[in-house]
Design a protein that fits this description.
There is one protein chain. Helix 9 links the parallel strand 12 and strand 13. Helix 2 packs parallel to helix 11. The protein is elongated, with a radius of gyration of 18 Å. By secondary structure, it is of the alpha/beta class. Strands 5-4-3-2-1-12-13-14 form an 8-stranded mixed sheet, with helices on both faces. The chain has a 6-stranded mixed sheet with strand order 8-7-6-9-11-10, sandwiched between helices. It has 2 domains: 155 residues, Rossmann fold, CATH 3.40.50.1000; 100 residues, Hypothetical Protein, Haloacid Dehalogenase-like Hydrolase, Chain: A, domain 2 (2-Layer Sandwich), CATH 3.30.1240. One of its GO terms (molecular function) is magnesium ion binding.
Amino acid sequence: MIKLFVSDLDNTLFNDEKQISEDDRRAIRALMDAGIHICLASGRMDKELVSVMEQLGGSFHRISQNGAFVYTREGERLLAASFEGNLARHLYEAAAPFGLVGFISMEDRMLVPSVTEDVRRIESRMMFPVEEHPGVLEEIGTTIQPSKICFIGDIGKIRQLETRVHQQFPGRVDTFISDRDCIDLMPPNISKGAGLKRLLDKLDLKPHETACIGDSYNDISMLQLTPHSFAMFHADPEVQKEARHTAKSVAEAAEWVLDYNAQAAMQA
């Protein structure tokens, strides 16, 4: 039986307008009514996941910032991760030649040294405002302990930055293409899959008792963890090949899960 359903947000549970369709809302409710726990897994901040949870009227497990923070539905924090020392500052500075827009994240804050027109334009995609903090780079490693750095811009420049980061900081940072124009820089060994594994251990669940759905490269680690994995139909082929199934929506994956459980119950 599948007891936990894990969903990515952007371009998965969220549509292009960052809204949740009525079909997907009903599907989440149907899973909850069937006694299946819900987990949201996203590169977004935890308070954004809490906002989505409240919109859907439930208590969900949460994996935020690509696994840097993990919470149970009861609010118990299982993990909080951040970059060592002033590494985040060096990473931010290494991106300067590529002309990308950078954001420095802590658990529930997203900071920039200055709010530019590009920052304001990108901010509209977020659920909470970005904070201008002119001294943010100097404070990294003291009063500011970043858990994620993301850069948004041209995908070609992003891939160049990804190569530069791994050459300059081998083994000290993990990178994920988390959207069509976004790269996330993370502390090593932090991922949605690692966060999900920690949650499963806490809940005493096995991977085969879990289903998950996502669409991007930061979802691959969790797609690989369970045999009941779904990639969104619009995902890149490299993402789709890591999942057992493809789906056009969260509702389609949820229907499959409910049918799977119904068949399992008949065979029990």
